[in-house]
Structure formats: C-alpha cells, structure tokens
C-alpha cells in the first residue's frame, strides 16, 4: 500500500514495483510497449499533492481511442493510489520531450 507518509524516493520504488508487476497485463490489455516514470518523483521534488507522470508507448500497430486512453489513465490512478498524468511518447514536443526523455525511468 502506498501511503502519504512515505518519502518521494520510497514512493518511487513502490510505484516502480507495482507497475513492474502489472507490465504483462498492461501489454495484453492495452498493448503497452513501454512505460516509464518521469517528473517530480524522479527528480526527488514531489510534494504531497503531486501527481505521477508516466510516459507511455503503445505497440505500433495498435490504434487506441480517447475512451481507452482515459480508461487506462484511471486504471493506473486507482492501481497506484495517486493521480496519474499519462503522456504518449509519440506526442512529445521537441523541447519538453528532450527533458522528459533525459529523466525517464523505464519500467
């Protein structure tokens, strides 16, 4: 269980462990090719109200809709017990994309 009393780096490890355990299911149900954590938790700057930033890449042949994307974001938020901000790797803008890719920790 993830608690608010955990330090950000402890929470980061808990998030990684939980996502790793779900990796096969995420691939099967949502065609997730890659999943990584970036943002305030990776930089050690997370505050109690911080969300968790996840970078996602889907299998190239998979075409998802907005409803599926929202369902996945909600599923991950419930699973991890924190609001998740899901970002699609293929939609990254060049400047912010470089920053994200330089700090992302892949699961």
TrEMBL record:
GO molecular function, one term: metal ion binding
Family that this chain belongs to: Belongs to the MntA antitoxin family.
Protein name: Nucleotidyltransferase
SUPFAM superfamilies: Nucleotidyltransferase
Record keywords, A-Z: ATP-binding, Magnesium, Metal-binding, Nucleotide-binding, Nucleotidyltransferase, Toxin-antitoxin system, Transferase
Domain of life the protein comes from: Bacteria
Lineage of the organism: Bacteria, Bacillati, Cyanobacteriota, Cyanophyceae, Oscillatoriophycideae
Keyword Nucleus: no
One Pfam family in the UniProt entry: NTP_transf_2
Cofactor(s) recorded in Swiss-Prot or TrEMBL: Mg(2+)
Residues covered by the Polymerase nucleotidyl transferase domain: 23-106
